[in-house]
């Protein structure tokens, strides 16, 4: 990475584990608390004066990125690493040989990388050659357990249908907890998650019997699909395995075909529970037009490792997980830092609302368990209404509208969206699904340039 390709402040702040870290880092972005700063083509470093007598020593390796700081913070990256990155982003830190304490850590990391590169990886078996017997036995045992779990699940669903749905509200949200636990024991976490959700639907408001019956049908179809896995087309079989809970390691995915393109970062969003922060980053290839979804994870207090600023473009290789409608991907070799795309490509081309619904419908034909599909909408207007927010498309002879899925869209984001629109059409990226549209990013023009608005942030 050339040092003139300094990161934008938005890129730096996207690495922060929480809002408090972003605020604290901004206070450390001025030169005053820093001394001994420097950088080279790979890293930057500096000493930051805190409340104690000894300054904290902070190093950031830009490839990765990776961080090291002598402060006692349990957040990762800490405010000092973020502050140093903001200082470098705005002013630069000057190029100089690394201090001994910085070069020692960087040299140790380089040595570990060299050793990892020299280690033989778990090579896939050549075509026509059987996998190792031990691995084959483990795979066969799991397949048997999952098949038995799928058969039990189908039997339970059939029993529920025979007895009717009227008693479902009285059974409570834990009605399917036992079945879900047995699916976990059967090593089918995807079946377990969907079974667990069945107990919540009867308390979800009017129309719950239809929604519950739909979920019964989709779960029965998934279990049935797994039991007939050998007769399915390869793409659909891969989708069923993924939905049941079989995972493919990113390293294995990257050993397969890759797509090199200039990938525009359409948007990102974070979701969290008590155990995990999940970051979803959506890309679209400028030449291929193919969407890609990257997932990155972090523990509470630790930001997910991957951060790509919305609106920038990345020259990189991407490999897709197998499936009937490939979307989830692994990021491979990056040939450049994220940069602003040419002005003509700053706003991605989009679809009419009718075309977007058609795209979701076609994706649903390939993957019946799909919740939503990423699309860019052109010329839609956000409108608050009596029944909730909606997106209106007046580009055709007859106006068309789609409700906004309020479960994952904060009120603050919607009002910001309405403010930048001012009643004028916007280009809007998000996910189109059976519950409506979840807006993620909007593009709009102000007096100086095209800007982006993160709706879910």
Q: What's the layout of helices and strands?
A:
Blueprint: H1 9-13, H2 19-27, E1 34-39, E2 43-48, E3 56-61, E4 66-69, H3 79-91, H4 100-118, H5 133-163, H6 168-171, H7 177-185, H8 189-198, H9 208-227, H10 234-244, H11 250-254, E5 259-272, E6 277-285, E7 291-298, E8 313-320, E9 329-334, H12 353-366, E10 372-383, E11 390-393, E12 400-403, H13 411-421, E13 426-433, E14 436-445, E15 450-454
Antiparallel strand pairs: 1-2, 2-3, 3-4, 5-6, 5-8, 6-7, 8-9, 10-11, 10-13, 11-12, 13-14, 14-15
Helix pairs in contact: 2-3, 5-7, 5-9, 7-8, 8-9, 9-10
Describe this structure as you would to a colleague:
The chain has 4 domains: 9-114, no CATH class; 140-244; 254-345; 353-454. The protein contains 13 helices and 15 strands. The protein has helices at residues 9-13, 19-27, 79-91, 100-118, 133-163, 168-171, 177-185, 189-198, 208-227, 234-244, 250-254, 353-366, 411-421; strands spanning 34-39, 43-48, 56-61, 66-69, 259-272, 277-285, 291-298, 313-320, 329-334, 372-383, 390-393, 400-403, 426-433, 436-445, 450-454. The strands form 3 sheets. It has a 6-stranded antiparallel β-sheet. A hairpin with a 5-residue loop joins strand 6 (277-285) and strand 7 (291-298). Residues 121-129 have low confidence and may be disordered.
Secondary-structure class: alpha+beta
Order of secondary-structure elements: HHEEEEHHHHHHHHHEEEEEHEEEHEEE
Stretches with pLDDT under 50, minimum 5 residues: 121-129
Biggest sheet architecture = 6 strands, antiparallel
Separate helix tally: 13
Based on CA inertia axes, which overall geometry fits?
Answer: globular
Give the fraction of residues assigned to helices. Answer: 25-40%
Question: Could you tell me the strand content as a percent range?
Answer: 15-25%
Instruction: Report the count of strand segments.
Output: 15
| Tally of domains | 4
Distance between the termini: 29 Å
Strand line-up in the sheet with most strands: 12-11-10-13-14-15
Q: What gyration radius follows from the Cα positions, in whole Å?
A: 25 Å
Mean pLDDT: 88
